[in-house]
Amino acid sequence: MSRYAELAERFGTPLYVYDLQEVATARTELLDALPERTELYYALKANPHPDLARELRAGGRGCRAEISSSGELAAALAAGFDAADCLYTGPGKTAAEIGTAVAAGVRRFSTDSVTDVRRVAEVAAGHGVRADCLLRVNAVDAAAPTGIRMTGRPSQFGFDAEELPSILPLLRDLPGARISGLHFFPLSNASDEASLTEEFRQTLAQAAELRRELALDIELLDIGGGFAAPYGIPGGRGSYPKLRAELEAALDLSFPGWRDGAPTVAFESGRFLTACAGTLLLGVSNVKTSRGRKFVILDGGINVFGGLSGLGRLLPVAVEPADGDPVERASLVGPLCTPGDVLGREIELPALAPGDIVTVPNTGAYGPSASLLAFLGRPAPLEVVVRGSDVVSVSRIDYQRVHQ
Ligand SMILES: *Cc1c(COP(=O)(O)O)cnc(C)c1O
């Protein structure tokens, strides 16, 4: 019996399996592709499971945590992150959330508007502390032609770069906040190394220009990410053999003090670090034919792997046959009472029958936490964390009772 079949039999399906060895490999790969003495933030959004976050934190050159809610803060703390190593981001931080973070010891925020900085400042001052605020920048122009683009157009994220010279004076002398750097996150899941490198180059040029124009003392320069990984389809992580040298050259040019930590340069990644560590196992509940078309009905759909389906971005998943080649066309659908519960429409599939198990590869990022978990009232999928052949933990995201 295969390892996955064994786990499916032991724990049932739908079942996520995450392998910590693969998480560790991804971290090493990414750190090796980045210049030394730079920092890497793990965006818990990709997978907030504390065991995965802990794996990314631990070890010699571990990740810091990029968080965006009280829940992610709790997950980061559960994973052993020091609150001082967390960067709190997001365009809609409430005073209550900021208060929770400051009380826990978070001192570094990425801010997206004047209101946001003032709110952080006020809450921090209320706690008798001063918070470091990075200004998130919505740059004027954008380079890479592909991937998920976040800047260069009207956005809830960041300050419009052209407005910063007039806005910055409003933010300089707030008692509870210190403007201590810049944050860029222009791109997610870049298509290739060349476009990623070009994006970083442009970001660095813009950052240098802003520093000059604003006479800003930048302690931390977070230039984002865009490191790629497959999502529910076969394949491997992006490969960046030249990136490090190119980044070093670009940094030497724009920020000659970076090797001595002036500024400290940081990167961010979610999917690269966890995507390939995850495999989703689903059971086939039924196979039916309707007007000549075949439907394979699984015991999990967009409720367990709904990643961004609401955004119309769901890519058809691939399932790996237990043996043999694809033999028929069919739609792969979930059990929910909505025609939208489709994981793949008219795709090539192995011959499947009720009781079979299918595996969806590369589902370690944007899995359960990005799914329509509560829709139709099915339990969240079990998540099994393994290290090689050892089972480390078994858990599921659950409701928390907040009132008696
Ligand atoms: C979502 C997000 C990330 C992670 O993106 P990936 O594509 O998963 O690497 C990093 N930083 C910020 C600010 C984000 O919003």
Distance between the termini: 46 Å
Percent range for β-strand residues: 15-25%
Into which percent range does the helicity of residues fall? 25-40%
Main CATH class of the largest domain = Alpha Beta
CATH-derived topology of the largest domain: TIM Barrel
> Given the C-alpha coordinates, what overall shape results?
globular
- The average pLDDT score comes to 91
As residue ranges, the low-confidence spans are 310-315
Number of helices: 10
Multimeric status of the protein = single chain
Can you name the CATH architecture of the largest domain? Alpha-Beta Barrel
Main sheet characteristics: 9 strands, parallel
Question: Domains counted in the coordinates: how many?
Answer: 2
Q: Over all CA atoms, what is the radius of gyration?
A: 22 Å
SSE pattern: HEHEHEHEHEHEEEHEEHEHEHEEEEEEE
Bound molecules: pyridoxal-5'-phosphate
Keywords: Decarboxylase, Lyase, Pyridoxal phosphate
Domain Orn/DAP/Arg decarboxylase 2 N-terminal: 25-275
Protein name: Type III PLP-dependent enzyme
Pfam families: Orn_Arg_deC_N, Orn_DAP_Arg_deC
Characterise this structure:
With 404 residues, this protein is of the alpha/beta class. It folds into two domains: 3-14 and 276-396, Lyase, Ornithine Decarboxylase, Chain A, domain 1, CATH 2.40.37; 34-269, Alanine racemase (TIM Barrel), CATH 3.20.20.10. The protein is built from ten helices and 19 strands. It has helices spanning 3-11, 20-33, 50-57, 70-78, 95-104, 114-126, 164-171, 193-214, 243-254, 271-274; strands spanning 15-19, 39-43, 64-67, 86-88, 108-111, 131-138, 148-149, 159-160, 177-183, 187-188, 220-222, 264-269, 278-290, 293-298, 328-333, 342-349, 357-360, 382-387, 390-395. Strands 2, 3, 4, 5, 6, 8, 9, 11 and 12 form a nine-stranded parallel sheet that branches. Strands 1, 13, 14, 15, 16, 17, 18 and 19 form an eight-stranded mixed sheet that branches. A two-stranded antiparallel sheet has the order 7-10. α2 packs across α3 and α5 (95-104) packs across α6 (114-126). It is globular, with a radius of gyration of 22 Å. 47% of the residues are buried. Residues 310-315 have low confidence and may be disordered. The site of pyridoxal-5'-phosphate has 16 residues, from β12 and α10.
